[in-house]
Structure formats: C-alpha cells, structure tokens
What does this fold into?
Amino acid sequence: MADALTVEIAGGGIAGLTLAALLARRGWRATVHERDSAIREVGSGLVIHNSSAVVFEELGILEHIVDGATRFTRSRLIDGHGELVTDKQLDAVSRMYNPLRSAVINAVHEAAQQAGVEVLTGSHVLRAEADGRLLLSDGSERRADLVVGADGFHSQIRDGLPIPVSKRTLATGCTRTVIPRGAYDAENAFTEIWSGTNRLGICPVSETQTYVYFGCEQANQRASATRPVDAAYWAETYPFLPREFIDRLDQGSAIRHLYPYVRCQRWSHGRVALLGDALHALPPTLGQGVGLSVSNARALVEELEGADHRAIPEALRGWERSARPLTDLTQDWSMRYERLSSRWPGNESARSWMLKHLPRKRLNQRLGAIDQRAERWAPARRSVSVPQEG
Ligand SMILES: Cc1cc2nc3c(=O)[nH]c(=O)nc-3n(C[C@H](O)[C@H](O)[C@H](O)COP(=O)(O)OP(=O)(O)OC[C@H]3O[C@@H](n4cnc5c(N)ncnc54)[C@H](O)[C@@H]3O)c2cc1C
It folds into this structure.
C-alpha cells in the first residue's frame, strides 16, 4: 500500500482545522501547528451561511455547532429613520445560523482530532519552502507533500513567500459584544440598522443571548468606544430603539477590530498553499469570511482527490483557477457593501430608496454566489431552490 500523503498546516483557526479534518478523513496524515497555547476563538457570535454549513455537515458537526443556536428565519435591513428597507425570507441555500465562535472552533477541533489530526499548540511556524519544508521557531524542520499557511491576516507564511500581496486594514472597524436577549430582539431575525456611516447588527445567538455589532469609522471615537460601549451615542443615533434594548448594550464585554483586506497575486508556491484570511481576508459585511475559508478548503480537497506527491503543485494551481473567480467576486461585493454601509456620501433617504429599488434577484445571486457553489458538496437530500425575489 502506498504511504499516506502528508500535510503540515500553520494555524489552528477554523480554516486550518477544517482543512486538516477533511484531508485526514480521506487518509492524509495531517498536522496542525497553532502558536497559541490553546485552540480558541474570541468571544462573540459568528454568522454562518450555507457556504460553511455544507462543509460542517460533511464533517458531521453542524448539528453540534447549532445546537441551541439561532437559525434566522429572515434577514432585514432598517434605515436610520427606522424604516424597513429590505426583508428577505431565508431558504435552504440562503440559510444563516448564529452560534458562538467558541462552539465552531471547539467542534472543528474535535472533528480534526477524531479524524486523527495531530494538533500541536505552542508551535510557532516561521516559514515554508516551495519544496514542502516548514520551519519552526524552535529550530526544527518538518517536511510534507503539502504545506498550508492558514495563519490568518498577518500570515508569516504568506509574507515569506515570493507572492505579491495587497494587504491593508480599512478605516472602518467593528465592535462586537454579546448581551442578554430581551423583548426587542425576541424574533429570530438577522437585523442590520444603518444610519449614515454607522451599522448596527442585532443577532440573537440563543434563547438567552444576543450578539450585537457596531460597524463604524475608526475616527468616530464615540461610536468605536468599547470600554464600555457608549450606549448613549447609540441611543442618539437610533432614537427609535427602545430603552430596554439600549439599557442592555453595555452588559457584555466588547472587542473591536478593524476590517482586514488581503488579496494575493497567486494562491500557492510549489507545495505551499495559502488558505483563509491569510489568502483572502475581507471585511465581514456579508459575513462570509468563514464561509469562503471553509468552502475553499473543501474545493481544495476536491482538487487534490487522486493526486500523488508529484501532482500536488499542479493541483494547487488548478484549485486557484477554479475557486478564485468566486472568491474575488465575494471579496469585491464585501468591499462594495462596506462602502455602501460605512462610507455612504449621500443622504440617508437616497440610499434607502436605492436599496429598495435595486433588482433584488440579481443582487441576491451575486451576494449569495458562494452559498450556491457550496451546493455541489451538499448531500443530495436537499432539492436546491434559488431565492426567488423580484
Ligand atoms: C469584526 C469581524 C467580524 C467577523 N464576523 C464574521 C462573521 O460573522 N461570519 C464570518 O463568516 N466571518 C466573520 N469574520 C471573518 C472571520 O472571522 C475570518 O474570516 C475567519 O476567522 C478566518 O479564519 P482563519 O482560520 O483563516 O484565520 P484565524 O482565525 O485568524 O486563525 C489563524 C490561526 O493561526 C494562528 N497563527 C498565526 N500565526 C501563526 C504562526 N506563525 N504559527 C502558528 N500559528 C499561527 C493564530 O493564532 C490563529 O489561531 C469577521 C471578521 C472580523 C474582523
């Protein structure tokens, strides 16, 4: 019997662990190096779409991830006057869930371990070489058929490769907090409220918790405050929000991050591939960072099927050819959505009018293209229905 193919993955985030689990289930010997002392995620909600759900279903962990978590029934946008701008019923392909990040990382970690992946924490990777070598900070070196840099936005693996990269943080960021759930957010709806350059997301996580995010320009000091969240500012910005909701806003601990952006001129170099935010970080305006990461991991696995040691560099180039167009499209739309929601130069009513009158069917197809692609890996049990909105 031929020896198992080997993969060394830098980064024990959702992207790296998902790829490791998928490959190990196909007979690969997989090792994940995580520089942190534990596998963990920040404490917030995580909006996941069909693009992630299909892959988590394949790993047998979707039920576990969404156990007790909200599955949204509708997705709606309200403007700064409190007017409903769009309201979309969610079907099988446009499905959205809102578990805690910890539930997702714990589940992919467990799936990886059950598939036999070696997960090394406190293992800091320095560099990867085109011939399949991985260099670690303790001076040791590992060799594999495939090396993957899934080490996030600030990827050292990527930055050590001769691949031109466009990388920046935007002038917009997002504060995230989880607060007790109450009357205003009683419905299982995904709600965004835009006002000028501010964007408020209200997303119930479970029966008792709601994930709230505030997107705004970093220069707006009151809007970007985290310790504590400036509830009075948000009450002034959205005067129609009920007091009982405003009073809950500073009841959770808040974290803030600027929106990231990465685009690489090539996705691989020899036997080294990039994955997840290391490859294509994008502003979270469409909530597709994880969806892109794990569905591109699934696409990579498909491309590697049947490949032997010699064929791997070509398989990586084939993966880029097939997965890149949708990735770039999703990233472009996330950037457009960021400009529309957070840097709109015109007046509020003009934006609402435009959003109400856009040809929704075409727009939904563009925004949801990555969810549509995931259907090719979905079990046959679900008959695909494309969102039918006029
Ligand atoms: C404010 C905000 C909100 C978001 N909301 C959503 C959302 O609702 N839905 C969604 O789908 N996406 C969302 N995203 C995007 C999503 O979080 C990312 O796309 C996703 O987490 C990327 O996963 P990753 O595994 O590629 O990277 P990461 O999660 O960054 O994981 C990389 C891992 O590599 C490790 N590492 C780094 N360097 C090294 C090294 N040298 N050696 C070893 N290990 C290393 C890190 O410690 C980390 O554990 C959001 C992003 C932001 C900023």
